[in-house]
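[SOLVED] Need 3D model of a two-part complex

Original post:
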Amino acid sequence: MLARVADLLVDIPDLGDMASRCKDYIYQGEGGADVIIRTELLQRDVPEGLTEEQNIYLLSGWYFYGGLLKHSGMMLHASAVEYEGKAYLFSAPSGTGKSTHTRIWQKEFGDAARVFNDDKPALRYLDGTWYAYGTPWCGKDGININMKVPLAGICFLKQAPHNSICRLSHQEAVSRIISQTLRAFSRVSDMDLMLKHLDSLVRDIPVFELENRPEPEAARLSYETMRRAAEELGL
Amino acid sequence: MKLNKNYVLRPVADTWVVLPLGAEAINFNGMLTLNESGVLLWRALEKGGDLEALADALMAEYIVDRKDALADAEAFLEKLRKVGCVE
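Solution:
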C-alpha cells in the first residue's frame, strides 16, 4: 500500500496491523515511491518477547527512518507537541518521562497543545525550514496526528527534584541527539548522511536540557524558554 | 595498541564524534565526542602510535610537560577502552 509520510511516498507492505496503523496516511493516487519497504524484510524471525505484528511495526519503522536519511531527514526518539503552530520535541531515554511532559503541556495549555507523534517524529529539512511530522510509528499507544509542523526546539528531559532548564552546546546536543536517533549503520555512507543532517539540525535548532518534576511549572518553564529562543532565531 | 577499525571519527557541528559501524553498533554502549586534543590523539593512534607516541603528539602541539602529557594520553586511552574502540 502507498502511504504519504513526511511528504514522502512510502510503499509499505500490507502485513500485520500496518493497514490500520497507516490509515491516516494512505495515499490514494499513484506515483513512484520515494521509500520502498520490501515485504521479505518484514518477514524476518520474530525476536523473543515480540508478537509478529510488533515485529512488523518495528522493522517497517526502521526501514522508513533509514530511507528518510536519503531525503534530508532523520528520526528523533521524542514526544512531539504542536502549540501555536510550532513543534516542540521532548526527548529522553525510554521511560524517563517524554510522554509525561507533553501530557502536562496538554493539561496546562489545553486542546491547543496537540501531541502529533508520541514516539518517533520524522524531522525533515525542506526549503530552508526544519519540520517535524506525525508518522504511523508513534509508540505503543498509537498517539499521532498526520501533521507537518515547523520545528521550534528540542529539549532533553532529566528527572530531578527541581525545575531548571539550560541551553546545550553543540557538542552536548550532538551527543544527546545521536543517542536518541538511528545510529546502527552497516554502511558508512548512511552514517555520514545522518551526521550531515545532524550538523544542520544542531546549527539551526536550539537544543535544551530540562531537569524537572512532573508538574505544571515544568511545562511553563520549557514552553517559555523554548518559545523565546525560537523567536530570537526567527523560527 | 590497536584502534578497532569498526569505529570511525567524524566531524559534526563544531565537534568530533566517534561512532561504531556494523555489528559493533548493535552493542552500542557509548559514543564519544572528542575535542581538538582528542582528535590529535586519535590520529596518532590511527598511525599505530603507543602511549609514548601519543604523549609526543600532545607535547608537539601544546605547552605541556611529559608527565602531564602521559597522564592525559593514558586518560584518553581509558576513555576509548571503556567504549571498546581500543584493543
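Edit: The interface with chain B takes residues 170-171, 173-175, 178-179, 183-186, 188, 191-192, 195, 198-199, 202-203 of chain A (CB under 8 Å).
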